[in-house]
Amino acid sequence: MSGPGRHEKTVERVTEIYVAVFPVPVNEDRIAEVILAGYQENKDVPNSTLVRATVETHAEALQDLVQLCDEIVSEQTEIDSYRLLKFDKDGIHILSPDHYRTFAQSYARVQWGQC
Q1: Which residue(s) pair with 105 in the sheet?
Q2: What is the distance between the alpha carbons of residues 62 and 85, in angstroms, rounded to a whole number?
């Protein structure tokens, strides 16, 4: 609550949510799409971890989200794909992760040779 002499806080409202969902088997004939969360080693600060989830609220964070999801797919044998979704006032939109990969991410697994 603000009063005379107090500074009002600016609240940045969420207008869109970006979510990566992964297909995970529930049983033999059912697969559920789930949001993943977990810990990741902090490369900048030794002996610390970051809590990460496959949800973002800013488009600027999508490049990092796609990189994280690509790492999950490459490291987790039970997960082989994901879908990138955008939720906003107009509904649910399916996005292509390729639009958010850097050149280095797009060609990280390419083997170069002579022609």
Answers
A1: none
A2: 11
Rounded to 5°, angle at Cα 17 from 93 and 85: 30
Q: Is the pLDDT of residue 80 over 60?
A: yes
Give the pTM.
0.73
Q: Is residue 115 pLDDT above 50, yes or no?
A: no
Q: Cα torsion for 52, 54, 57, 63, to the nearest 10°?
A: 90
Residue 102 has, within 13 A of its CA and on its CB side, a CA count of: 9
Residue type, 62: L
Beta bridge partners of 17: 87
State the Cα–Cα distance between residues 25 and 111, nearest whole angstrom: 32
CB 18 within 8 Å of CB 64: no
